[in-house]
Amino acid sequence: MDLIPKVVQAVAGENFTVYAYFSDGTIRLLDAKPLLEKGGVFAPLQDAEFFSQRLTVLNDTVAWDVNGDRDPCACVDLDPCEIYESCPAVADPLREVI
């Protein structure tokens, strides 16, 4: 693992979850509901469509492009170390089962 883990892809799941794909190949499942309940900067993300459509990777981590201009200084982003250490590792939800 890098000194600071890097998120390379973020995929919205159901019920305000995010699959965070890390550069070391691991996938972590983030339940964002507790963050959204805090309001504040997270308030716009309480809309499920906004949550999933604005989800992206900025600053090498899970982020939401709140303004729609991909400005890494004006996004809501999460600490990649916290996601890596506190969220459970899961199988790739995008992998087709054959």
What labels would you give this structure?
98 residues; alpha+beta; three-stranded antiparallel sheet
Give a summary of the structure in a few sentences.
It is built from three helices and six strands.
The CATH H-level superfamily is NE0471-like N-terminal domain
Radius of gyration: 13 Å
Instruction: Record the strand order, biggest sheet.
Output: 1-2-3
End-to-end separation in angstroms reads 30 Å
Helical proportion, percent range = 10-25%
DSSP summary, beta strand count: 6
Looking at the overall shape, the CATH architecture is 2-Layer Sandwich
Q: Compute the number of helices.
A: 3
Largest sheet: 3 strands, antiparallel
Unreliable runs: none
Portion in beta strands: 25-35%
**How many distinct folded domains?**
1
Average pLDDT, rounded to a whole number, is 94
So what's the CATH class?
Alpha Beta
CATH fold node name: NE0471 N-terminal domain-like
The secondary-structure class comes to alpha+beta
The dominant shape is globular
Task: Tell me what the structure shows.
There is one protein chain. This protein has a single domain (7-86), classed as 2-Layer Sandwich (NE0471 N-terminal domain-like), CATH 3.30.2020.10. Helix content is 17%, strand content 28%. The protein is globular and about 30 Å long. A hairpin with a 4-residue loop joins strand 1 (7-12) and strand 2 (17-22). With 98 residues, it is an alpha+beta fold. A three-stranded antiparallel sheet has the order 1-2-3. Strands 4-5-6 form a three-stranded antiparallel sheet.
